[in-house]
Amino acid sequence: MAVKIRLKRMGKIRAPFYRIVVADSRTKRDGRVIEEIGTYNPKTEPSTISVDSERAKHWLSVGAQPTEAVAAILKITGDLGDGKSTLKTPTAKRDKAEAFNEALSEIHAEPKAEATTAKKPAKKKADEPKADEPKADEPKADEAPAAETPADES
User: pLDDT tens digits for 44-101?
Assistant: First the structure.
């Protein structure tokens, strides 16, 4: 019986989550498995990988063949190849309750003495024409435009 170490797809549409499983090569992708040895979540930053190294090494030693995707994952964890792990760990996120309490304390703190932004200077009203006066470019409403008279040529 040919045994493969491969990924079993789980999760929802557009939100894949994989289990690293040992299964007969003739079974379906998401079908019956012999053993689950880890998980892989590509949607997190960085990707979350957890593998039971002892079981992975056992199955590799008895002749199980990893697929290309699983081989890449096992190289990252150090279970296949040189044995050096290059697995990245996610950075610790701030606790939401702590961030909320900090924001709440900033709101209830004493107000600052000065404004944080400078005030804009007031516009001068002398430069602006009044609403009832026509602008210099526009003719008055009661005046007709002056007809051009031809110049006398003598």
Answer: 988 899 999 999 999 999 999 999 999 999 999 988 877 777 888 777 788 888 888 8
Rounded-to-integer distance, Cα 53 and Cα 63, Å: 16
- The H-or-E segment that residue 102 falls in is helix 96-107
- Check if CATH label 3.30.1320.10 holds for domain 3-77: yes
Which two structure tokens, joined as six digits, stand for 136? 């210099």
In this structure, the number of other CB atoms found within 10 A of the CB of residue 102 comes to 10
Domain boundaries, the chain: 3-77
Instruction: Give residue for tokens 């900033």.
Output: 106
What are the backbone angles phi and psi of residue 153, rounded to the nearest 5°?
Answer: -110, 110
User: 24: left (phi > 0), else alpha (psi -120 to 50), else beta?
Assistant: beta
Model confidence, pTM: 0.59
